[in-house]
Amino acid sequence: MNTIIVARNLSKVYKMGEVTVEALRGVSFEVMEGELVVVLGPSGSGKSTLLNIMGGMDKPSGGELYYMGTPLHSANAKQLTLYRRNEVGFVFQFYNLLPNLTALENVLLSVQIAQNPLSAEEMLNKVGLTDRADHFPSQLSGGEQQRVAIARAMVKNPRMLLCDEPTGALDYKTSIQVLKLLKDFCDTYSKTVIIITHNTAIAQMAHRVFYLKDGRLDRIVENENPLPPEKVTW
Ligand SMILES: Nc1ncnc2c1ncn2[C@@H]1O[C@H](COP(=O)(O)OP(=O)(O)OP(=O)(O)O)[C@@H](O)[C@H]1O
Fold this sequence. Notes:
Belongs to the ABC transporter superfamily. InterPro entries: AAA+_ATPase (IPR003593), ABC_transporter-like_ATP-bd (IPR003439), ABC_transporter-like_CS (IPR017871), MacB-like_ATP-bd (IPR017911), P-loop_NTPase (IPR027417). This is Putative ABC transport system ATP-binding protein. It holds the Pfam family ABC_tran. By secondary structure, the chain is an alpha/beta fold. It has a single domain, classed as Rossmann fold, CATH 3.40.50.300. Helix content is about 30%, strand content about 30%. It is built from 6 helices and 10 strands; from the N terminus they run βββαββαβαααβαβββ. The protein has helices spanning about 45-55, 75-85, 105-115, 120-125, 140-155, 170-190; strands at about 5-15, 20-30, 35-40, 60-65, 70, 90, 160-165, 190-195, 210-215, 215-220. The strands form 2 sheets. A 6-stranded mixed sheet has the order 6-7-8-3-9-10, with helices on both faces. It has a 4-stranded antiparallel sheet with strand order 2-1-4-5, with helices on one face. Strand 4 and strand 5 (about 70) form a beta hairpin. The protein binds adenosine-5'-triphosphate. Adenosine-5'-triphosphate binds near residues 21, 46 and 49. Adenosine-5'-triphosphate binds near residues 14, 43 and 49.
């Protein structure tokens, strides 16, 4: 397996007037292609900060970050825009669908900006929403909206999916559906999936679990036998 992400001694400092917050304090790790990583940690431990930096939405204050050997820590705004557009799919807790576009149109929007997209219809079919293609987000349940958001992220055909609390707003049964889709994307297409969550149960399906604590990577635990999503319970 190839290494997709290398992080070396990453730090992030937020300064607001007199107040300085050290959100990341020297975090180092590697992530492999085709790997499913779950990042766990208490509130404020730096999970979203790390995801934002890996997604090219923010830059580290110090340290180095490489994507497929290309430095992101020194990339300019244009390079980061292309990185976000072509290499990464994002899934957030609150879906972020455009309310005035149908499910299919939300997915097609992603197709238009991607370099090497998959088929929007095929992705909607994959997430089980072919018959809801013409529905607007307000006509869909939370779980259905999240499935559209996943189709939108996958259709770009990115090497990596970054997911911030993807099941945070969903009930158990719907969460498992969503986790199955993420795991399936990882397995079928050999893609990297990184999931940030408060839900420790989800860690059971990961290849590796990163535990963040107070801005530091406290430990990395490898699961010898990751559970299939349908076996994960909470
Ligand atoms: N834009 C910002 N400006 C200032 N401080 C920030 C900013 N973003 C995050 N922080 C601070 O950095 C620290 C880490 O925040 P972060 O959101 O990464 O944690 P988290 O582990 O994702 O937390 P949660 O699980 O509650 O979402 C916190 O102390 C937070 O207040």
